[in-house]
Amino acid sequence: MNIAQAYLKPEEKAVFLLRSLYRSFGYLPYKMSKFEEYDLYMRHKEFLKSDRIITFNDADGKLMALKPDVTLSIVKNGENQPGGKQKVCYNENVYRVSPSTHQFREILQTGLECIGDVDLYDLYEVLELAVKSLAMLSEDFILSVSHVGILTGLFEAWQVPGKAQTGLVRCISEKNIHEMGPICDEFGLSDRAREGMMLLPALDGELLPTLKALEDHLEGETAKAAWDELYALANLFRGSEYENKIRLNLSLVDDMKYYNGLVFKGYLAGIWESVLSGGRYDTLPQRMGRKAGAVGFAVYMDLLENLPGRERESDVDVLLLYPEGADTAVVAGKVRELQAAGKTVSAQKTIPEKLRYKTLCRLEGEEKA
After folding, report:
1. Could you give the C-alpha distances from 154 to 162, 197, 200, in angstroms and in order?
2. Which of 2, 56, 172, 221 is the most exposed place for a label (fewest CB within 10 A)?
3. How far apart are CA 180 and CA 197, in angstroms?
4. What is the 3-state secondary structure (H, E, C) of 288-325?
5. Cα 255–258–263 angle (5° rounding)?
6. How far is the C-alpha of 51 from the C-alpha of 54, rounded, in Å?
7. What are the backbone dihedrals phi and psi of residue 364, each rounded to the nearest 5 degrees, phi first?
8. Domain map of the chain by residue range?
9. Are strands 85-97 and 28-29 parallel, antiparallel or unpaired?
10. CA separation (Å) from 300 to 27, 92, 278?
11. Whole-prediction pTM value?
12. Looking at residue 74, what is its pLDDT?
């Protein structure tokens, strides 16, 4: 780490390291405005986490919105490249309602998108970057993966009615097996369908073994094609240091309107919600007139504040206290001395109430915080 990085806060260091990782794979930095036309989000609101958006009138009266999403802007402003791919990474703030406080928050996201002629290599590369991102943030992490095609394919093969699908998707996402039986009874699903549906929420384990456990329960070309894709990806990670960190979890079905293929979420020990989320979303660029596939993910940097031990991070290495009337040259000299030793220093006459420091240094002596 260079001298400049040494002065960054933990979240800032994480952003720097992640950006460097993505750049090493050829993802070019993407920068966007803080706002877009409100109409962009309303035309594609089914692809947003929430339709609650902060709006304002521009100088010409046009209704604008503080961006609640990055991906929409990237897809909108990209160009079709027949046979090619647009690979970008970003570090942007979005403005959304917090699920915990139910108030608008400015949320820092770091992520990447690959848009164009997406193939198996691109899916593998994005998954690899997702797992490497988690490894940079914590040693204790899990990347859960699934595939929308498995569930939609089984629904097709078992001829599950649309109204039944809604209830079953909710039960699978909640891993609520008890309510699945009555739904199967209500819509007259076969014993084969009932057995398969109740199996899905329980399938959560290491990727290759769990895929093999699922294989005998597959029906229909769509489900089998999705299984084949996941199995090919699993084999690409066979023997790698991340093989045991990637798990199959078929309860990842809550974003089926957005994703149409591979879907995944990343978790760090000590944080109850996913800090990374992504997948394949061909429907969005096609809805926006682009002949392209797309895959990507975002890391929610604000959640890193909840990592165990993060509260012990210090604002500065040294709090230098000097008395009223102290010789300015002496104070400045002491600050330079500490900085030369690689320390960050805050020179104060009193101890600030909320400043976190490692060492309290007085001109007449030192003591630990």
Report:
1. 13, 9, 11
2. 2
3. 8
4. CCCCCEEEEEEEEHHHHHHCCCHHHCCCEEEEEECCCC
5. 60
6. 10
7. -100, 0
8. 315-368
9. parallel
10. 19, 10, 11
11. 0.81
12. 86
Percent of the chain surpassing pLDDT 90? 48
346, with CB counted inside 10 A (0-12, 13-18, 19+), is: middle
Query: What's the rounded Cα separation, in Å, for the pair 21 and 154?
Result: 37
Sequence length of the chain is 369
| CB 30, CB 89: distance < 8 Å | yes
| Choice between 2 and 273, residue whose per-residue pLDDT is larger | 273
**Which of 6, 13, 4 lies closest to 310, judged by CA?**
13
Phi-psi region of 161 (alpha: psi -120 to 50; beta: other; left: phi over 0): beta
Chain segment 258-272, per-residue pLDDT in tens? 899 999 999 999 888
The token pair at 363 is 């001109």
pLDDT tens digits, 37-91: 777 777 777 676 766 777 778 877 788 777 778 888 888 877 777 788 999 999 9
- The C-alpha atoms of residue 133 and residue 110 are separated, in whole angstroms, by 10
